[in-house]
């Protein structure tokens, strides 16, 4: 099979190249997926530069993708053969990600894709949608709540806006441009604010006069100061990314409101948490409550450019087509 790989140690560490690898065979409890589309996330290019040592010399990158189950391992029913699926965590603790024509992984990480949902859309779910779900629903229902999504046009933010709206919340999204504002509004945000506006704090207070109940936060060190006085009692701020290694937190204002600061790293979720997210994402897909971002396509041979596009902040979803 054709695949992209990079070395995990040595002088060429992290440098992507295209190679031919033996076709993998699924082990017990696994399925093999013929990948049609691989999704690129920030975690994929970051992993190439990570300092963590791995027990294998080569890594096939990319966690997310979509395709068709073409083989099953022992313990997996033949009814899964031919099933259209989206996959998540393909390269988590494994040397084989989705930037390959074939990938084997535990069957629960290959999720049935509703017939009306495209492979492009499926390849963009994984990390963004599961992260958004955990940020929103780890503390219960959002029905009737006011939810702030910072970075509402990013992959996680875009999913969070839609899942929050699907869950019955009133959604406020922040963006940095008119283009991103249109994406957030089209996703269902009832209020879209440009956080670069001089009067942004006043606009936010006017949009949420009774306070914010949940915040899905992309840059906690930078953003918390702009809205901490808008948080309702018992609000939850769930941060899924870091803009700096350290942040200053206004302790007493948050303590006075019994505010919870939650940090979400998708790789640390339990299988129960993942299963809950997958179930809700599937239900939202069937309800047509989740729509994809605009896409930027690359062939497998241009995977380095695809990773660079994500690293450069491409607006929309970066996808890689497998031959």
Tell me the span between the first and last alpha carbons.
Answer: 10 Å
Count the strands?
16
Tell me, rounded to a whole number, the average pLDDT: 96
Helicity, as a percent range: 25-40%
Give the overall form.
Answer: globular
Q: What does the model show?
A:
The chain has 323 residues and is α/β, with parallel strands linked by helices. It has helices spanning 42-48, 119-123, 126-137, 155-166, 178-187, 200-207, 220-227, 251-256, 271-286, 303-311; strands spanning 2-7, 17-20, 30-39, 58-59, 64-72, 84-87, 102-106, 110-112, 146-150, 170-175, 191-194, 212-217, 231-239, 260-263, 295-299, 317-321. Strands 3, 5, 6, 7, 8, 15 and 16 form a 7-stranded mixed β-sheet that branches. Helix 10 (303-311) links the parallel strand 15 and strand 16 (317-321). Helix 3 crosses helix 4 and helix 3 (126-137) crosses helix 9.
